[in-house]
Amino acid sequence: MGVTVVKCGGAVPAEPVCADLAGLAGRVVLVHGGAVEVDRLAGDLGVRARTLVSPSGVTSRHTDPAMLDVVTLALAGRVKPRLLRALAAADVPAVGLTGLDGGLLRARRKTAQRTVRDGRTVIVRDDHSGRLTGVRPRPLRVLLDAGFVPVVSPPALGEDGTPVNVDADRVAAAVAAALGAERLVLLTTAPGVLRDAADEGTVLDRCALDPAGPVPYAATGGMHRKLIASREALLAGVPRVSVADGRVPRPVTAALDGAGTTLEIT
User: Fold this and answer.
1) R_g over Cα of the chain
2) What structural domains does the chain harbor?
3) Is the pTM of this model over 0.85?
4) What is the spatial distance between Cα 69 and Cα 238, in angstroms, rounded to a whole number?
5) pLDDT tens digit string along 214-251?
6) In angstroms, rounded to a whole number, what is the distance separating the alpha carbons of residues 241 and 229?
7) Helix, strand or coil for residue 263?
8) CA dist 44 to 47, 116, 118, Å?
């Protein structure tokens, strides 16, 4: 059995996911975000949470310097330790990493980007987010070969040596590609990709993605990013990608057995 990369969203219950990884140590990488915890910590610290909206309608977190600190603290200091505790409780040997460790994740910061505010397009220059440019898989391979589960999150290392906030779904896709993984599983708080976002009964068994066009079904927010990440993974050679429900008792096993939505390139 080859490597599987599992992405666990911040709203997905950690304990069932971690318990389900028992027996997969050395063959699975767990990637996580933590938007809920980032927002909570920002409120605790009095840091204003803002959203950037691109002219095409894609939303992202406005990561100014204060918010970059919040993101780093929340992911590395709250979310990751909680996952590591849950893995330890399930007797799963795990090691926590951010993209800064060993230069694991490399990214290019967007020094200027357009956002729509009050109907006007403006330029934002203080955002410390960006796009992944590379994954250094050696630290992950060393840990996998030693029987550990690497637990990976943003931030990434920027070209100037400073942290860059990057999307965790796309991190999972890039890690899967870099490792030559057999499977990428994106766990979320929905049963899969929905034809109608307001109706969980409209889950798709399969979802075809145009290699260059817009994502289907008017997906927005987190699901839009998951479909983009899925397409990137498939185009990079990952043979099987699925979006599945992280709320069920054994979410990873269920996804590997075919639950959720299987993504494919048209």
Assistant:
1) 17
2) 4-40+71-101+135-265 (3.40.1160.10)
3) yes
4) 33
5) 776 545 568 888 999 999 999 999 999 999 999 999 99
6) 10
7) strand
8) 8, 28, 28
